[in-house]
Write a structure and sequence with these properties.
The chain has about 350 residues and is an alpha/beta fold. It folds into two domains: about 160 residues, Rossmann fold (3-Layer(aba) Sandwich); about 170 residues, Dihydrodipicolinate Reductase, domain 2. About 30% of the residues lie in helices and about 20% in strands. The strands form three sheets. It has a six-stranded mixed β-sheet, covered by helices on one side. The chain has a five-stranded parallel β-sheet with strand order 2-1-3-4-5, sandwiched between helices. Helix 1 links the parallel strand 1 and strand 2. Helix 6 packs across helix 8 and helix 6 packs across helix 12. The structure holds the ligand N[C@@H](CC=O)C(=O)O.
Length: about 350
C-alpha cells in the first residue's frame, strides 16, 4: 500500500460544505498531503471552486484551490487520489462512498453511515490509532471512518482515565455549526435550547464504546461501559461542550485525574505529526473554564471543573466540532496512517 510514497494525494467530496472548507484550509501548505481533486454536487461540476463556494470559515479562500475545476463523485474522477476524503452530508454519503470503495479507492469519511461496521475502523488518532493496524491485513483498498464530532471530543479525556470508569452520565451542549451551514433556522435557536438532536445520543454511546474497545480484523469488542447521554443544541456558533459525570470503579483523587489528563500524549504527539496538538488535553485552572467563546482550540480539547465527590468524577470538556470533530481528525488520521506505513 503506497510503499515509498512521499506525498499523499487526496481528493475531497463535499468540498464546498463547512467541513470541506476546513479540510482545504488545513491542507494549505501541508508538508506532504496534496489536494488533487475537489468534488461538489452535480450542478457545480466543471465550474471553478472559487466561483461556486460560499466561503464561510475564518480567513479567505486559499489561492491554491480558487481555480480548481470541480469534478463529479464518479470513481473515474478520483483515480489520481491515494485517498478520497468524504465530507459529504450523512444522508447522501453512503451510496457515493460505497461506489468509490467498490471501484478500489481508499476512503476516509466523516459521515455517520457504517461507523459501526465491524470491519471499518472508527478512528480518533490519539485515542485508538492502534485500530488502524487491522488495515495491514487487507489485500485491497480500505475505508476508515471518523467518529461523530461529540464522540471525538469526549473520547479524548476518557482515554487516559478509562480504567477508573464504571458508568458515564453525559449532557452535551452542542453548537449550531454542528447542524451544518443550513442546519437550523435563527428563529429556532436564538435565545433557545433544544434538548434533542436526532440520533446523537445513540451515536455518542456506541461510538465511544467502539473506540475505547478492541478492534480485530473482522469484529470489535466494545469497551462495555454504560453511557447515558442527553444531547442538547445551544445558541453557540462553534464548539461543543460536554458535562461528564463518571461513576468510578475505585477510589481516585481529582489531582491524580488532572495529572493523567495533562500528561496524556499518544502516537501523533510522539511522531510530531503536522496536525497534532502538542498537548491534546488542556486542563484549565480558571474556575469558569472551559468556555467555547474563550477556550476553543482547533485540535486540542479543553477540560475544567474537575472534581471527585462520593466516587463520582465530574469534568467539563469542550472541543472544536468542525476541526477536532471533523476536518482536522480526517487529516490527522491520514498523517497517522502515513507514519505507520499503512499509506
Ligand atoms: N452530529 C453533530 C455534528 C458532528 O458530527 C451535531 O449535530 O452537532
Amino acid at each position: 500500500m503506497g510503499e515509498g510514497m512521499d506525498r499523499v494525494r487526496v481528493s475531497i467530496l463535499g468540498a464546498t460544505g463547512l467541513v470541506g472548507q476546513w479540510m482545504i484550509k488545513l491542507l494549505a501548505n501541508h508538508p506532504f498531503i496534496e489536494i488533487v481533486g475537489l468534488s461538489a454536487s452535480p450542478g457545480k461540476v466543471g465550474r471553478k471552486y472559487g466561483d461556486v463556494v460560499h466561503w464561510f470559515i475564518p480567513g479567505d479562500i486559499p489561492e491554491y484551490v480558487k481555480d480548481m475545476a470541480l469534478v463529479s463523485t464518479d470513481p473515474a474522477d478520483h483515480k489520481a487520489a491515494d485517498v478520497v476524503l468524504s465530507a459529504l452530508p450523512n444522508d447522501v454519503a453512503w451510496p457515493t462512498e460505497s461506489k468509490l470503495a467498490n471501484a478500489g479507492l481508499n476512503v476516509v469519511s466523516n459521515a455517520s453511515p457504517e461507523r459501526m461496521n465491524p470491519r471499518i475502523p472508527l478512528i480518533n488518532p490519539e485515542v485508538n490509532w492502534e485500530h488502524l493496524n487491522i488495515l495491514r491485513d487487507l489485500k485491497g483498498n480500505w475505508m476508515v471512518k471518523n467518529p461523530n464530532c461529540t464522540a471525538a471530543i469526549i473520547s479524548m479525556p476518557l482515554k487516559p482515565i478509562q480504567d477508573l470508569i464504571g458508568t458515564l452520565h453525559i449532557v452535551t451542549l452542542q453548537s449550531v455549526s454542528g447542524a451544518g451551514y443550513l442546519g437550523l433556522s435563527y428563529l429556532a435557536i436564538d435565545g433557545n435550547v433544544i434538548p434533542f438532536i436526532k440520533g446523537e445520543e445513540e451515536k455518542i454511546d456506541i461510538e465511544i464504546n467502539k473506540m475505547l474497545g478492541k478492534q480485530l480484523v473482522d469484529h470489535y469488542d466494545p469497551w462495555g461501559k454504560p453511557i447515558y447521554v442527553t444531547a442538547t443544541r445551544v445558541p453557540v456558533k462553534y464548539g461543543h461542550t460536554a458535562v461528564i459525570h463518571a461513576i468510578l470503579n475505585r477510589n481516585a483523587d481529582a489531582n491524580q485525574v488532572i495529572e493523567r489528563l495533562r500528561r496524556f500524549k499518544s502516537l501523533p504527539q510522539e511522531k510530531e505529526l503536522p496536525t497534532a496538538p502538542r498537548e491534546p488535553i488542556k486542563v484549565l485552572d480558571r474556575v469558569d473554564a472551559p468556555q467555547p467563546a474563550r477556550d476553543l482550540d482547533p485540535m486540542a480539547v479543553s477540560v475544567g471543573r474537575v472534581t471527585i465527590r462520593d466516587n463520582v468524577l465530574r469534568l467539563v470538556v469542550i472541543g472544536d466540532n468542525l476541526v477536532r470533530g471533523a476536518a482536522g481528525i480526517t487529516i490527522l488520521t491520514i498523517e497517522t496512517m502515513k507514519t505507520l506505513g499503512i499509506l
